[in-house]
């Protein structure tokens, strides 16, 4: 059975727009996205007064089980290392964009011919779900 959805993480300061770097966002919003629907799963809020290494560990934990991370700006070296090791595809956007717009674009790609990175994300999500069932 092929799953047709992915879990996507969006760094945001307002829960509406991807307008922050992964390392400094106030929130990480997590959505489950299929070709025809999107469901908000949860948002993790971060205390910016915590030590940087603790914040990074907490932020990376939110991405576990997800396949895609949209981020405004570069990832730090440690965050990028975590994404690669956990097969989370990080996509850098150059200007702030509404989360809804990014979801719609992803859905359009899912409905037509998904690019290779999205095919891999879909396959990764499928593998994560089958491992969870065991």
Task: Write up this protein.
The longest helix has 18 residues, at 116-133. The protein is 39% helix and 28% strand. The model is unreliable at 129-134 (pLDDT under 50). The chain has a single domain, classed as 2-Layer Sandwich (Nucleotidyltransferase, domain 5), CATH 3.30.420. The strands form 2 sheets. A 5-stranded mixed sheet has the order 4-3-1-5-6, with helices on both faces. Strands 2-7 form a two-stranded antiparallel ribbon. The chain has helices at residues 52-63, 77-85, 99-111, 116-133, and strands at 5-12, 17-18, 27-34, 38-45, 68-72, 89-93, 97-98.
Give me a quick take on this structure:
By secondary structure, the chain is α/β, with parallel strands linked by helices. It has helices at 52-63, 77-85, 99-111, 116-133; strands at 5-12, 17-18, 27-34, 38-45, 68-72, 89-93, 97-98.
Q: What is the averaged pLDDT score?
A: 87
Class by helix and strand content?
alpha/beta
Q: Give, in order, the helices and strands.
A: EEEEHEHEEHH
What gross morphology would you assign? globular
CATH superfamily: Dinitrogenase iron-molybdenum cofactor biosynthesis domain
Give the DSSP E fraction (strand runs of 2 or more residues): 25-35%
Looking at the structure, the CATH topology is Nucleotidyltransferase, domain 5
Number of domains: 1
Strand order of the largest sheet: 4-3-1-5-6
What's the alpha carbon Rg, rounded to whole Å?
14 Å
Q: What is the rounded distance between the termini?
A: 15 Å
Report the sheet with the most strands, covering strand number, pairing sense and barrel closure: 5 strands, mixed
Unreliable stretches (pLDDT < 50, length at least 5) are: 129-134
DSSP E strands, number: 7
CATH architecture level-2 label: 2-Layer Sandwich
Helical fraction equals 25-40%
Number of continuous helical runs = 4
CATH class: Alpha Beta
């Amino acid at each position: 059975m092929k799953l047709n959805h992915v879990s996507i993480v969006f760094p945001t300061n307002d829960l509406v727009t991807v307008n922050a770097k992964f390392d400094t966002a106030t929130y990480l919003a997590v959505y489950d996205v299929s070709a025809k629907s999107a469901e908000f799963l949860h948002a993790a809020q971060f205390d910016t007064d915590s030590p940087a290494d603790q914040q990074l560990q907490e932020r990376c934990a939110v991405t576990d089980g997800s396949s895609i991370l949209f981020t405004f700006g570069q990832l730090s070296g440690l965050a990028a290392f975590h994404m690669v090791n956990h097969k989370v595809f990080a996509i850098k956007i150059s200007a702030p964009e509404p989360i809804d717009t990014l979801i719609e674009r992803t859905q359009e790609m899912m409905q037509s011919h998904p690019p290779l990175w999205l095919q891999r994300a879909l396959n990764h999500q499928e593998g994560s779900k089958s491992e969870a069932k065991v």
